[in-house]
Amino acid sequence: MEHLRLHLPELPASGEVTTFYSYKGGVGRTMALANLGHMLACRRTAPVLLVDLDLEAPGLHYYFPGAAQAPGVLELFEECREQLQERAGRYACDQALAEAVLDAVRWEQYLVRACDDRPLWLLRAGRCDGSHAERAAMLDWQSLFDACPALFRTFAARLARHFGHVLVDARSGRADCSAICTTLLPTRLVLVFAPNRQNLDGLQDLVARATAYRSCHEDEQRQLLVYPLPSRIDTSDAGQCTFWRRGEGVAGGYQPLFEAMLGQAYGLPWLSLEDYFDAVQLPHCASLASGEPLPALALQQAYCGFMQWFGAGLCPWQRRPSAGPATLNHHHALPLEQARAGYWPVPAAM
Asked: Based on CB atoms within 10 Å of each CB, which residue in 187, 215, 225, 255 is the most buried?
């Protein structure tokens, strides 16, 4: 297999590692990741890497049938496990151990081209052969972290040296692998959700845990920018759309929920997601339920709306570049200090 360094030298500045997460399955998370990765690669400004870390239900490779069959995430971290066992006690710090392990496993050899006509690469979940499910169940993510807490952070940093965007497809739910994907790997976190209470409650807990961990651990003081991405929105029922977005009475909608959630995470006394959610909603499309289209033309406008913030690296409470003062009312306007706010979680109150 060709070695990545022959083709993709280090970038002048590190790229972004983004995890796509959904608390429940069936919300179009993998489809959104594949299509947005395809759009980013079409810009040809820097290579893009897609990583399938949903080992229990691998699906990202179906969007790229031309990509070569190859080992992937499972085989890579199985090799990391062996290297950690061999090197236990030989290094003075976790960072040095992580660097040595990743050098030894030659992580670049697990990457394949997703397509030939744009700089898009794929790290599959694994070979997906007859032994995949059993081996995936035996891979103890917590033990890998305990053996070398710096391993996942260092792995993400290495990917970001070569790719402008690294998009990680995370397993749904609260498994150890999901926690690694949402807490340890990313600089950005895209929360894909259908407008129902199960999804919203699960995401609220996830954001609280991820941002608290990043703010309270000395080695994890890194940026984490959160983008909510509502999906499977039934636009034919305007009343229900409004109810789930804004809430009514004691029932809170997802917009005020995320405004409060992000305000607390970043220490902002007030922020508005009005402009963002006006443009960022993925509608329900029955025609997409039985296939893996790329590009998904029925959702192209919705993906483009999301890219106005994500592609520009804007916080979701900031103005989109195309929106000038004449198109924004008083409720969209932000105080200057909030418009310039960074995206590092603030320490949790003691």
From this structure: 225
